[in-house]
Amino acid sequence: MYTKNFQIVEREQTSVKEEKKELRSFMKRRRAETENRDIKERALVENFLKFLSEKGFQIGKELTCFIYLSYSSEAPTLSLIDELKARGVRVLCPRVDGEYMQAVPFGEDFTLSDKGILEPTGEAFCGKIDIAVVPLLAVDKFGKRLGYGGGYYDRFLTAHKETLAVGYCYDFQIVESVPCEEHDIPLDGVVSDKRKWTTKEK
Predict the structure, then answer these.
(1) 12 phi and psi, to 5 degrees?
(2) Are 167 and 123 in contact (CB under 8 A)?
(3) 37, 103, 137, 202: which has the fewest C-beta neighbours closer than 10 Å?
(4) Burial class (CB in 10 A: 0-12, 13-18, 19+), 151
(5) pTM to 2 decimals?
């Protein structure tokens, strides 16, 4: 009986992993074909600012945002970072340290990770983080997110439960359902170039 149950669970886990693999592959191809990126980038910034306002955040020096540094075909974040910094927001970006990510202030000096992703240098930030802007390959209306499989953001969000996690993506990355495992942390909100919504309240 126990063996049977274990085999069923094992098959289900394998099925979810395969679904994730297929969706990742599809979305990477689809995202690489994205056109009108500059127009979509402006719309993303506008919608994110509206999202913050609707959530009651004051966009100024009292706000701390953790924002990924976009890589390859990801929804670009540099314009968002520039806009927030111009308004006095403290902006932090990820730096990988082993299996975990540190939140490091965005500055003028960067290094390249083993994967070719820009990472800020300097001391890691240890205070409260209000918002985390999270990259993704796909997301559904419940905030279930498909990432790259490394688990870095799941671990980061688990360690920062007070932080509002917001997915940042092109609208076509929003799908009907994302395959999910127990360790996957759902997002609190999603912002795309066409819409924005809150998935749950903290």
Answers:
(1) -65, -40
(2) no
(3) 202
(4) middle
(5) 0.90
Query: What does the pLDDT look like over 55-92, one tens digit per residue?
Result: 999 999 899 999 999 999 999 999 999 999 999 999 99
Token couple for 141: 């209306």
Task: Return the closest-CA partner of residue 62 out of 130, 123, 117, 13.
Answer: 130
Query: The tokens of 188 are what?
Result: 């609190």
State how far the Cα of 68 lies from the Cα of 71, in Å rounded to an integer: 9
Proportion of the chain above pLDDT 90, given as a percent: 83
* Both tokens assigned to 15: 């099925």
Residue pair 68/92 in contact (Cβ under 8 Å)? The answer is no
Quick: pLDDT tens for 121-163. Answer: 999 999 999 999 999 999 999 999 999 989 999 999 999 999 9
In total, the chain counts a number of residues equal to 202
